[in-house]
Write a structure and sequence with these properties.
This protein is of the alpha/beta class and about 375 residues long. The protein folds into 2 domains: about 170 residues, Rossmann fold (3-Layer(aba) Sandwich), CATH 3.40.50.1970; about 180 residues, Up-down Bundle (Dehydroquinate synthase-like, alpha domain), CATH 1.20.1090.10. The chain has 13 helices and 13 strands.
Length: about 375
């Protein structure tokens, strides 16, 4: 059964479809194509698996395709130009629709290209990883990485719709599946303690790719994110809560080299570091931190920072994070399980203690 949610943004509102065998639903996909021109963007891993089904669902349209290399290390301006090259070589105009078929890298780059081409054209998200289905495909954040910082170049550009076909998760490897679960756990920690409790009881079902459990986790995560995005589309306030663990995690991704750690793996460690700092501030208990650590470990995620990342390395990279405002670092911290807050009012001495502690644990 297909579930439909709505991201409520007035005239930019759009649906999220969640279900099985949605890639073959031509009526569903074509109902969101604004003209006759379509550029499908995928990568070398996903295209052999699902591109033909999407092309069949687009039958009758003027279709071109571009296949990008797979990996976070290719999420840059140089590779982004391949999308622009394809659009210009095809002489596509403002009525073109870009279709992102892949994980978060493909979705972010396709969305950014759509935001920039002729100052903005339509695009559709067809996420094929758990992480992209529960997080990156929803909310309109698009962009590419820079050697000095992750996602530092981008734009807000909302899709026409998100089509999350849970059948695509059957081809995910265990590491990618666990990476996606980090973002699901994040929603539980931000403001959905019942979801966190449900995950503690059902994490093994998710790891076994139980479709009913996966559909529930995706729906609940998208509901949580859609509500926050509707309240704060461009991250002027509450939307920053969605960055729980990300300031630490982005430092790991940048410091280790894009692709060495998967996004969810880095965020998992980042959430634990945020929990540790919150504990040192007296906001959560040691038992809370242990509970988070235990769930992340059961989900197959790392719970220790990479040994190569020293305190100085973390601080240097965190200082250029997007959450820095007027020279002050803002972090998403926890006042309890399912109760997160945005704060720049924390002790840098305690932050350094957290960084020292995690480096010591890793050693």
């Amino acid at each position: 059964m297909m579930k439909t949610l709505t991201v409520d943004l007035g005239d930019r509102s759009y649906p999220i479809y969640i279900g099985q065998n949605l890639l073959s639903n031509a009526t569903l996909l074509q109902s969101h194509i604004v003209g006759s021109e379509v550029l499908v963007v995928s990568n070398e891993t996903v295209a052999p698996l699902y591109l033909e089904r999407v092309l069949q669902s687009l039958d009758g349209k003027n279709i071109k395709k571009v296949i990008l290399p797979d990996g976070e290390c290719y999420k840059n301006l140089e590779v982004l130009n391949r999308i622009f090259d394809a659009l210009l070589e095809s002489r596509f105009g403002r009525k073109v629709t870009l279709v992102a078929l892949g994980g978060g890298v493909v979705g972010d780059m396709t969305g950014f290209a759509a935001a920039c081409y002729q100052r903005g054209v339509a695009f559709i998200q067809i996420p094929t990883t758990l992480l992209s289905q529960v997080d990156s495909s929803v909310g309109g954040k698009t962009g590419v990485n820079h050697p000095m910082g992750k996602n530092m170049i981008g734009a807000f550009h909302q899709p026409q719709c998100v089509i999350a076909d849970t059948d695509t998760l059957n081809t995910l490897d265990e590491r990618q599946l666990s990476s996606g679960l980090a973002e699901v756990i994040k929603y539980g920690l931000i403001n959905d303690k019942p979801l966190f409790s449900w995950l503690e009881k059902n994490i093994e079902k998710l790891l076994a790719c139980d479709h009913q459990a996966l559909a529930y986790a995706i729906e609940r995560s998208c509901q949580d994110k859609a509500k926050i995005v509707a309240a704060d589309e461009r991250e002027g306030g509450v939307r920053a809560l969605l960055n729980l663990g990300h300031t630490f995690g982005h430092a790991i991704e940048t410091g280790m080299g894009y692709g060495a750690w998967l996004h969810g793996e880095a965020v998992a460690v980042g959430m634990l570091m945020a929990a540790d700092l919150s504990m040192r501030m007296g906001w959560v208990t040691a038992d809370d931190v242990h509970q988070i650590d235990n769930l992340l470990d059961r989900a197959g995620l790392p719970t220790r920072a990479p040994l190569e990342m020293t305190k100085q390395h973390f601080l240097s990279l965190m200082s250029v994070d997007k959450k820095v405002e007027d020279g002050h670092l803002r972090l998403v911290l926890m006042r309890g399980l399912g109760d997160s807050t945005i704060s720049s009012d924390f002790s840098y001495e305690l932050l350094e203690e957290t960084l020292d502690a995690h480096h010591a644990i890793s050693a």
